[in-house]
Predict the structure of enoyl-CoA hydratase.
Amino acid sequence: MIYQGKALTAKYLEEGIAELCFDLEGDSVNKFNRVTLQELGEATTALAAEANLKGVLVTSAKSVFIVGADITEFTELFKLPDAEIRAWTSKANDIFNAFEDLPVPTVAVINGVALGGGFEMCLACDFRVMSTAAIVGLPEVKLGINPGFGGTVRLPRVIGCDNAMMWVATGQQQKPAAALKDGGVDAVVAPDALLDASLDLLKNAIAGDFDHHARRAEKTSPVKLNDIERMMSFTTGKAMVAQQAGRHMPAPLTAAKSMERSAGLNRAEAIEVEIDHFLKLVRTPQASALVGLFLSEQAVSKAARGFAKTGGDIKQAAVLGAGIMGGGIAYQSAYKGTPILMKDIADAGLALGMKEAGKLLAKRVSRGRMTADKMAAVLGSIRPSLNYDGFDKADVIVEAVVENAKVKQAVLSETEKHISTDAVLASNTSTISITHLAEALERPENFCGMHFFNPVHAMPLVEVIRGEKTSDLTIAKVVKYALQMGKTPIVVNDCPGFYVNRVLFPYFAGFDMLIRDGGDFRKIDKVMEGFGMPMGPAYLMDVVGIDTGYHAAEVMAAGFPDRMRHEFTGISQLMFEAKRYGQKNGIGFYRYEEDAKGKPKKCEDEAALAMAESAKQASVELSDDDIVARMMIPMCIETVRCLDENIVRDPADADMGLVMGIGFPVFRGGALRYIDQMGVKAFCEMADQYADLGPLYHPTESLRQMAANGESFFK
């Protein structure tokens, strides 16, 4: 044994050839934490001291190679002074450089995931052999930062500046074929041939058939482009990066600028440039929000796995109602491997549901993501039916009929008679109380909510709603089913609107009040899209369906009359009464026409503008900041209320629910991180400026207490 540590070992495989094996103790994956970095330095020193060493294979004892840096350490790292962050990053780079400078050829044996620092380790090797089951990449920009272990230095020298800018600025994971095509790896082989192929390459390098000295010289020298070539490459590349990233995400363009500045420098100088840009980005609110969101996502995923532990295998599912939503649920279930029965009361409904599933599958085939045979198999695992045949074998049955409490209760009560006593019934209701719906059932303990978001195939979130009598086993089964469907479930407690819609409707109420006070819905949409929302509130209402939103708002007003009942006739009500339902019938806040691809194209509509004018009761001067504040304060305060009332478990669930459920801007991290970044005290002071607008704008006592104590939602 050359070196033995808690994260890696170094030993001879055969004469002169050593294996540096990453195997982080006590963890299912390898990652670069402080221990791993320290031991890499120590192991490198030990390897350099071996007189008989001829070459090194870098391997992993786990199913992944190295997933990247340990993100849990970032939150503490980012709090350090600049000098300490620079010292830490410089020391890490010294370790990578020392490994790269070993006096023998080195080969990375990439058996699985190699991302971020994991792929930077591969880049420090002379050669890289990749399994067909592996992925590589530098996704740091998705955390609001740029690579910090030499990624922006080595990658352009390995695959060229143009390719490197796209790899780094998009943060995309690279599959084997793409990685090989761009030159990020030297060979791609089947998993069972990986070690032999890597060993063979290393022996050829030792024999001098492959020149590792030349490889190294390229990585440690300036990029081989003249000034004009370099200028053209980076000018074009930066323009593309800026356009794709948008103004709210500084990391992609900053990383591109880092590569541009360092292209004409040697390794030591270039790494200092990378560290300069890394330091600049770690101080941005985007990095703080995105790192925090990553940690929240891990926490939510861990919680879901915990809930699902006792859920068993969901082998057969069923859905009641075969419209667009039912068809979407059927598609997602079947596509992810759980066969599903789809029941409706009419052939037309079944045809619509199958058409929806077939359309989504055909799209995958047309894009080369699925074979026609696979499509046929998936469609074959969806069984349409006008009766309850086979429902006695279903483990989970999801009701997705019209959003009407009496209709839902009737359907659920009837269905309960045709299923096994241990099967779970779940309602896809978006607002109706689960406890109320359960009153129609003989086994309310076997019933809960399972709220999908539209479109089902695209939206990652599922709310699993616990009613007053819902059992833990029921929650476990439905969470397990959501995970099998490839969704991220959060478990919430019952109340009108549950969590996401309960928080969304105060946002819509803020919009109605803005129109009442003289706001232009076109400007409001533009400002909120500039804030980072995927679409403005008027456009969102059109997409959701103004009729759907109006009926849901009635439920919310009944549930929370003190703050969600209007004392005026809002623009949403006027639109509903005029039967302007949005995209579904072609007119709402905007008029919709089909574009060349058959998709609805948003157009301005004079009648909608006149209707908005008629809804005005005042003409208040509204700045962009006023619009953002008046839209966001109600949403944020309602989020806090849901936390206070234990509707959501914790701040991580709360923020992830909004990011995945309504597209809350990821670079802001969610409503609670938005408050944190502003400061709870500053948020309360901002809300108090709009106190005359009513209870939706009044901070909770818990918020005021947090402000007084200098507390935050995330530590």
Observations:
- DSSP finds 31 helices and 19 strands in the chain.
- The chain has a mean pLDDT of 95.
